[in-house]
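Researcher: I'm preparing a figure for a lab meeting and need a structural model of a single chain. I don't have an experimental structure, so a prediction will have to do for now. The sequence is pasted below. Please return the structure as tokens so I can convert it later.
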Amino acid sequence: MLDYHTQIKQCKRLWSAFDLPSKRGELSALQKQSADPGLWNNPDNARQIMQQVTILGEQIQEWDDLTRRISDAIELAQLDDSSLLDDITAEVVDIENRTTRLDLEAMLSGEHSRGNAILTLHAGAGGVDSQDFAGMLLRMYMRWSERRGFASEIIDQSAGEEAGIKSVTVTIDGPYAFGYLRAERGVHRLVRISPFDSANRRHTSFTMVEALPDIDAVAEITINAKDLNIDTFRAQGAGGQHMQKNDTAVRITHIPTGIVVQCQNQRSQSQNRENAMKVLRGKLYEAQEIQRQKELDDLRGDYVKAEWGSQIRSYILHPYQLVKDHRTQHEVGNTQSVLDGDLDELMETFLRSGL
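Model: Understood. Here is the structure written out token by token.
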């Protein structure tokens, strides 16, 4: 009726990789720690333990649910009832999709991969076309987030002079948001007939995409208040109009590193300050990781500095339609679908490549 052998082998391979018995043992040990009356004497450590308990519990529950569904589907198939064929087929397809997703998420083992993300876009070379392209990418990522049921919020935005945006920062909250969006980090290139060129010439424009982890655990990144220079100013709307009469926008400069972040989309100064600190923690964490990697690469003798302009992906709208990831050489012919947020194929190809 239906051949389940391939599916069962795939799931067994994944169960082996996930090492469910080990995860159960780890969860049991963490639960014992969480029951310790003195746990909250160290609030930062307690929060990390409780977070791990939640994450492991959800992962184990998901695998247990998948095991049950496969067992139920096999039992129904063994009944050899043709009236159940459509229902069983639909269930098998859904199980296969879920298995594929779990397979990919099992690979996203990096620190913070399971957590939320902060996405920042910066229009680059290309003038108005670049700013318009940044706006197109913002819409693309918001649509991708919506497709996955993630929550997204623009926390800072600088409008373009004629169209699009100069820069924008968005928080994206959902399981593995950072794990997936790290596949988008780098320079993106657009080739098209410019709608802003009266001569209808082909233009090339660039936008830089940054993906940072949303780090809530203050213990991971220590920020000394004396190292911060905090400025407030009036938030700007489109066309330079004031959104607020008061100085609600916040700009924070981390003096030791020179990192500058700002947020202005909330109506209160305290909310903008909180969001700005969230972005700063992400940037400081990323800077630490880059420095660690540089030191390792220097020891290996193969460190190569990343330069602006080395695009990771091209969106070609003229003279033909193609989206190409230059890291994996993977191509998608339906450019409109990609720009509408259908990014999973490109993301997953990159993440599975191990690059």
